[in-house]
Amino acid sequence: MTSRGRAVTGVVGVAVATAGLAVALGPLSGVMLVLGLALVASTAWLGPRGARVVGTLLGTLVVFGVARAAWNPVVGAVLAVVFGVLAFRSLPTMVMRRIAFLVPSLVVLIFTTTLLMYRAPGSPFAQERVATPQVEAALRAHYGVPKSATAFFGIYMKRLVVDGTLGPSIKVQGRSVEQLLAPALPVSMTLGLLALVIATVTGLALGLRAGLEPNSPADYASMGLVLVGVSLPSFVIGAALMIVFALKLGVLPVAGWGGYKHLVMPAVTLALPYSAYIARLARGGTIEVMQQDFVRTARAKGASERDVVLRHALRGAILPVVSFLGPAAAGILTGSFVVETLFDVPGVGQWFVRGAINRDYSVVLGTAILYASLVTGFNLLVDLAYAWLDPRVRGQP
Amino acid sequence: MSESRGPWSDAYRRLARNRLALAGAAVVALVTGLCFFLPALLGLDPATTNPSLAHLPPGSGHLLGTDGLGRDYLARVLVGGQTSLLIGFAATVASVVVGVLYGAISGYYGGRIDEVMMRFVDFLYGVPYMFLVILIMLLFSETARGNPLPVFLALGLVEWLTMARVVRGQVLTLREREFVLAARLLGAGDLHVIFRHILPNVAGIVTVYATLTVPAVIILESFLSFLGLGVKLSWGQLVAEAVGVVNPIRSYWWLLLWPSVLLATTLLSLNFFGDGLRDAVDPKARR
Q: Residue B22: how many CA atoms within 13 Å on its side-chain side?
């Protein structure tokens, strides 16, 4: 804790990390990775004013890039300016700080993913039937996939920032990554949001019910259900649902995507583990809040039981759940890899798994960027919601 | 009461009173024992194929039936359990070692070091962990396909983050306590203070989180197996294989049932034990 000890630890830590990465990844990549991480870490030094400026700049850039890809450069420029002005003037410093941290992390993520993919055995062109060196070289030049990872990173970043595109898919002929992911994104979002809603609503209801009467039969019943949800991998639950509802009863389609009926089993499967976890959190929160003095005061004032539950217990149950929603969303996205594969849902998760196995570098990077932005964006929303719900947090920067 | 009761003996008493937690521990021990000793004891072989005995239902020579290649399913379930449990425990140990050291250093030194180290954790948290795991698995896809080692490396690598955060939070408050100040005034070095005075105080909460990490890792491993990136033989891989042959015409229910039941029982028991341990170590945090 002495300042000398702190400095020594810092220097030793950075030196060890640099040396380790340089040995593991080669000198150029290792040093680049350390520099990237240092850039990400350096956002910790930004003051409130600095965070505001850097956050606005980076946020404006991102808005411009996305809007240009979605519509055209003019709309992009207009939206970016509007965002920049609004953000600089009215967004809380916490959000600006987060944006200033997130954009460099995304770049480091792209670099790390590139390194990992290039180090994995095999290449996108390994399975080509006519793989003479000349053909492979021509293909590599055509798709912008040189043999070195750092060169690829350069090409990819230039494409992303200057041209505003995620690049062509290497394995799906003649399609860009945007074209592949654009129809998949709404599918994954619908499934994910529905699962999140199911998980939150059922979890809250079960947990609140259990927490109001701890150690009652109702408590044991709902907590028993919860433990089953926590203890079975989702694809087992999914398979069981499939056998019962699709194969035996025939009321729901086995797999695929189309009408609302296709949504039911994947969404429930995806939601169940999180519903269970949320129920546990809500139960704990309810028990805690029901022992507080203000609940006794409310009762003494003659508030009805319904009022006590709705005004006080519900808030106690919701707070721990809200802080879990960020991790839950990330988990549901992860779970969607499995559930989409099981139910053959044409979502983003499938593209990632397929891209990773086929070494379709640009598809993997595209899905990585998409997922990371979704998770972090959602986390930001959750933090804002938490600050709004819990006055104790509100005052903190 | 004449004897003095420290926090550990208090926790032990509370744990001993929690029958569910004890039952959980007993079941885990039992399943582990069965998986590791029964195959050798009965001379079971999970690899011998026999096409004429394919898809035998349970009973008649093969207690749990056979799979599509005529392999004895009891042997496969037990040997698969070895891998699942091994990966679960090994990845947890790895995550504890890395997470505790990282969190302790970050929390103890505080200030900029803490900021930078926690930024790095935040960064990794922002990446959906399945990405990292799948990408790491790809690195080994040809050299060590089906080996437990890369799976355990990849899972340990993502699971230490929570541990680091928990430990860091605890250390941040511990380092302000009088006994740390006293030790430092007596001339103790940083490492001495961390290892002798701070880490023993986070042991309780670390044990609790470690217990709850084991089931999480086992589930993650089963996800990997399901996606075809896991190990050669584990509970998750057996379940995934069974899910793959679900069809409307013939049901081989035993293929899905046995590994699912063992997996669920083990995870349930680990969760019971972990919850009991948490209540025992930290009775205020009953959740």
A: 8
Which A-chain residues 14-73 have CB contacts (< 8 A) with chain B?
A: 37, 40-41, 43-45
In the Cβ-directed half-sphere of A358, how many Cα atoms lie within 13 Å?
Answer: 15
Please give the pLDDT value at position A128. Answer: 56
Q: What percent of chain A is modeled with pLDDT above 90?
A: 1
Q: DSSP string covering A12-23, please?
A: HHHHHHHHHHHH
Nearest CA in chain A to B244: A342
Please state the ipTM of this predicted complex.
Answer: 0.76
* Per-residue pLDDT at A190: 86
Over the stretch B84-103, which tens digit does the pLDDT of each residue have? Answer: 888 888 889 988 999 999 99
Residues in Cβ contact with B198 at an 8 Å cutoff, skipping those fewer than 6 apart: B104, B108, B171, B174, B175, B180
**Token output for A339:** 């559930």
**Among positive and negative, which fits the CA dihedral A239, B246, B129, A258?**
negative
Q: What is the pLDDT of residue B40?
A: 78
Chain pair A-B, CB pairs under 8 angstroms: 164
B113 in contact with A at a CB cutoff of 8 Å?
yes
Are B277 and A270 in contact by the 8 Å Cβ rule? The answer is no
A107, A117, A202: which is closest to A156 by C-alpha? Answer: A107
Q: Residue B121: its pLDDT value, please?
A: 85
Chain A interface mutation, best of B101, B123, B253, highest count of A Cβ atoms under 10 Å? B123
Quote the percentage of chain B above a pLDDT of 90.
3
Q: Tell me whether residues A37 and B243 touch, CB distance under 8 A.
A: no
Nearest CA of chain A to the CA of B4: how many Å?
Answer: 30
**pTM greater than the 0.90 cutoff:** no
Report the C-alpha gap between B94 and B152 in whole angstroms.
9
Higher pLDDT, B146 or A213: A213
B155 versus B68: which is more confidently predicted? Answer: B155
Residue identified by tokens 């640099």 is A18
Mean pLDDT of the A322-327 span: 77
Which residue type occupies A338? V
Q: Between chains, do A236 and B239 touch, taking CB under 8 Å as contact?
A: yes
Instruction: Report which secondary-structure segment, H or E, holds B129.
Output: helix B129-139
Which amino acid is located at B270 in the chain?
L
Establish if B236 touches chain A: CB-CB under 8 angstroms: yes
Determine the Cα–Cα distance for residues B240 and B256; give it in Å rounded to an integer. Answer: 8
Residue B172 pLDDT level (bands cut at 50, 70, 90): confident
Q: Report yes or no: B21 and B15 within 8 Å, Cβ to Cβ.
A: yes
What are the chain A neighbours of B251 within 8 Å (beta carbons)? 243
Q: Are A349 and A336 in contact (CB under 8 A)?
A: yes
Contact residues, chain B, for A238 at CB < 8 Å: 243
